[in-house]
């Protein structure tokens, strides 16, 4: 590690001032600290957000769940409101990484980092959630913009994410066992207006699949998902899997997710 300054704000206002002055926000640190150790990131000042109580917590408001940015994965997984109203999200949180990651990682940190194989972005995008920041509200379709890239501007912090509660939903993934990130993950969410399907781990960032959404909006069955041909041309090929294998996984995992959501 190298020398840097660590600030510990206790209010959101102080955190915003530090971020505006150039401090790097530190949420759960599951990615940032590892990147700093490898010299892939070298911020001179960190703002540890763990002491900002305004950024943590879960509340149910009408047909939506509002989850504070600094809420840990383990707290999402164990929250009674989440388990009752949106069990697919609780299941996703309970299967991120390992126990250590779930105890430290945060939903806001995951969304802001936008790792192309992270689990949470698929839930945010599949539900059409709203990312609430210190400056504005951003629709999920506008928030995720590619590899480790989001709509956040310099100094802008995520305060919370507001999830509309779907009629039915499920998340399925195949773990890459060395990292515990999904090789491919698929989140399916059904609303009165149709179905949204978000895929993680397969491309340069989380994305929606229009073909699967159209088919499942007509008939929410595994057979309907199986009828959709998954194009592999824009998918990743690496040492873990080929693009063709990932395309096949998208279809298989979508079928499993639909079956789980329907059970």
UniProtKB/TrEMBL annotation:
Domain called FAD-binding PCMH-type: residue spans: 1-168
Name the record gives this protein: Xanthine dehydrogenase family protein subunit M
Keywords carried by this UniProt record: FAD, Flavoprotein, Oxidoreductase
Claim: Hydrolase is one of the keywords in the record: no
Lineage: Bacteria, Pseudomonadati, Pseudomonadota, Betaproteobacteria, Burkholderiales
Domain of life: Bacteria
Pfam families: FAD_binding_5
